[in-house]
Design goal:
Layout lengths: L1 E5 L2 H19 L5 H16 L2 H4 L3 E8 L2 E9 L3 E7 L8 H15 L5 E5 L4 H7 L2 E2 L4 E3 L2 E8 L4 E5 L5 E7 L10 E9 L4 E7 L11 E2 L1 E4 L6 H13 L8 E10 L5 E10 L14 E8 H9 L12 H8 L2
Parallel strand pairs: 4-5, 11-16
Antiparallel strand pairs: 1-2, 2-3, 3-4, 5-8, 6-8, 7-8, 9-10, 11-14, 12-13, 12-17, 15-16
Helix pairs in contact: 1-2
Amino acid sequence: MITYRTAAPADIRPAFDLALRVFMEFEAPDYGPEGTNSFRRDVEAKAENLDLYLSGKRLLFVALDGETVVGMAESNEAGHVAELFVDGAYHRRGIATELMNMSVCALKLRGCDRIGVNSSPHGLPFYLNYGFQPTDTEQRKDGFIFTPMEYIPNEIWDILDEDGNRTGCCIERGRKMAAGDCHLIVHVWKHNGKGEWLIDRRAPGRGTDIDGLWETTGGSVVAGEDSLTAALRETKEELGLDLDPSKGTLFHRFLRRGKNGNVWLCDAWVFEYDCPIEAVRLQEGETCDAQWASAGRICEMMAAGEFLNGWFYPYFEEMAETWGS
């Protein structure tokens, strides 16, 4: 079984030995002696400078078969992927993708909103398939042949087990999760104490099958957040409202399995909150309308197909009964 980790001190030399070996097999035929010798000097210098990686100034992730390094990915703090190599005997097993996933998550969490790479001709199909886009035409410099490319990462989620415990790993939104992994989302209900709930309408044109429908505030918990923090953030982002955390109740948690195989935990929060509808500040591209509505009215909207239905909110009737209609 292939395992992955941040490089330990004992991994660093084998990782760069692997990089040179794979480079010589797959990349060097496209380069002249100048480029090959330059690459050799570069990886040798990195292999000797352990502090770069032990201090975290540069990131190095490795893939291992047992204790043998069979893949490596190296990047710097500016968000540039410098090396990505996988042993030829292990190609087409998703190892490069997993190493890139780890690099993207780590760089995004360090504040890199754009990730760059200078792709060799051999690596170009991989980077294009991953989602990188060329930023210029093919370049030739100091014996190297490369295409400058850029990737804009999505938000990063903590991976949880089905009991809600963090696994210590992360995933970029939109990437397929492994079996047994899940992430956390929140539903945020606002109740004014008069039998009404503040609901909002999803903006049209977002490219989903629920565009234009009514819902309550919701979204994913991003890496490093807890459920309550995410509930407050999502409400601020989507409606421009500041909720009082002391007036929030975690009403329900449930596990949901999607059609694409992904699994998520959902926390349903209820906040006591009241405001005139004019106080709502809709987020362009996310929400397009808001209103206060009774539980009965929401049920009617669900039945008419105007509101996200009970599959999304299986606890709704119980919640409405608890807080009053």
